[in-house]
Amino acid sequence: MKVYKNAKLRHQSDLYDIWVDNDLIYDIVPTGSLEISAEEIDLNGNLVCEPYVESHIHLDYVYTSDIPEMATKSGTLFESIEKWSDSKKVLTIQDIKERAYKGIKAEMRNGVQYIRTHVDVTDPKLTALKAMLEVKEEMKDKLYMQLIAFPQEGYYAYDGGAQLVEEALKMGADVVGGIPHYEFTKELGEKSVKKAFELAQRYDKLVDIHCDETDDKESRFVENIAAEAYYTGLGSRATASHTCAMSTYNNAYAFKMMNKFRKSGINFISCPTENCYLQGRYDGYPRRRGITRIDQLVESGCNVSFAQDSISDPWYPLGNGNLIHQVDFGLHLGHMMTPEQINNGLDYITINGAKTLSITEGYELKKGNRASFIVLDAPSESEAIRERASVVLSVRNGKVLMKKEPEKILQDIF
Ligand code: FE2
Prior knowledge:
binds fe (ii) ion
């Protein structure tokens, strides 16, 4: 038995002790109220919460921005896709695995224990998928992973794209991807969404589609995703990632759709740093931000999570896998800074992300569940977000995955 003493739990003012019996949470009680002989770890009033969930990243692309052929001139999404298309042929399974492991380590050092990664399957050899299937298997004791069969160059814009997605699902991908705004026509975009849901039903998979990642206010594939999720009954097993164009829709249309989104049950993912960097690139000034209607979606009862998307790839040259940065940016760009919105800020990278991944049981920090949690170097949610606090301890199934020294000031100013 181990006891993690003096833990500050989310939305609580008192301190608690978390008792861990092997891989399970034996109990969570007010500090000092249970006396059993156990190894003691003092958390000194630091905030403890569920592990971070990375709901949208491309681990097969990470750290590729240093490849000269990948550099873009315009910084736009569409030029990045073209650069990737030309250059990805040189990547090998070993190369992709090495970069992916570096990305996984960066994320896990920052408290992530769950990752949903897109994997580009518009490649006749399915090299990236083979690499990521190996990584998933090799990491299974330390990390929960979902792989998305993602046709970066389209179901139909890429010859054989739809067949490659299906092949990837047969090989073991967990989620059906898509990119309707990149297909040649609106009709083909709609057809690709329909196809994604057909495949999800046939192979019993989840759906997560790159959707309306553009400033084009005519891009409305999110309504197709909501309708398909509603009529197929897939509901919350489906997700619309990005939905940047929603920020440019007229309010009458957006207002009508909010209820439909809630009714459909679909999840939304916003990638604040990436979306605001890639969108608005054709605008000059005034310049749009490319951030979906986070506040209105939340007010309407929809599930929204925040994610990293890229670490140093042709789409986004920065990024470090530290999801609390996405919370900070998301709250800024979403105009969401009431005390309640700040106190709920960590939801976007914890419980909301878990909902998106359809993790329905065992995630929450509570008695009887798996002893998986993280400790932040901060005493409260607001301080954690304001200071972008480090994760100093990550425990998974009762075992310490990662431990860090908190920041130390060796000589102070006064
Ligand atoms: Fe993405």
